[in-house]
Automatic annotation (TrEMBL):
Belongs to the snRNP core protein family. Residues 5-77 form the Sm domain. This is Small nuclear ribonucleoprotein Sm D3. Gene3D superfamilies: 2.30.30.100. It is found in: Cytoplasm, Cytosol; Nucleus. Pfam families: LSM. It comes from Funneliformis mosseae (Endomycorrhizal fungus). CDD domains: Sm_D3. The keyword rRNA-binding does not apply. GO terms for biological process: spliceosomal snRNP assembly.
Length: 105
């Protein structure tokens, strides 16, 4: 079984600053040092914002992927090869075989 595009994009984000929100509403922002295929991540130099607004600093943290609600990765990754390949393929199918059925041209 191969990994999907979101996982590949997460691997591309290694070494960059990412933001992630946990299911309990806590927000972590730090440098992504490692990402696993099951979305477990290790962050360094983290700023943690609790649901009540309290902010704290951590040197490093390991977060289980099933506890993550979403990731925010840097905008520069939209130029990554994996994002380019996906975007091009999606555009190729737009208006494809479904349109103009039964009409002669």
């Amino acid at each position: 079984m191969s990994i999907g595009v979101p996982i590949k994009l997460l691997h591309e984000a290694q070494g960059h600053v990412v933001t992630l929100e946990l299911n309990n509403g806590t927000v972590y922002r730090g440098k992504l040092s490692e990402a696993e295929d099951n979305m477990n991540v290790q962050l360094r130099e983290i700023t943690v914002t609790a649901r009540d607004g309290r902010v704290s600093q951590l040197d490093q943290v390991y977060i289980r992927g099933s506890h993550v609600r979403f990731f925010i990765v840097p905008d520069m990754l939209k130029n990554a090869p994996i994002a380019q390949a996906r975007g091009g393929r999606a555009r190729a199918f737009r208006g494809g075989p479904r349109g103009n059925r039964g009409r002669s041209q």
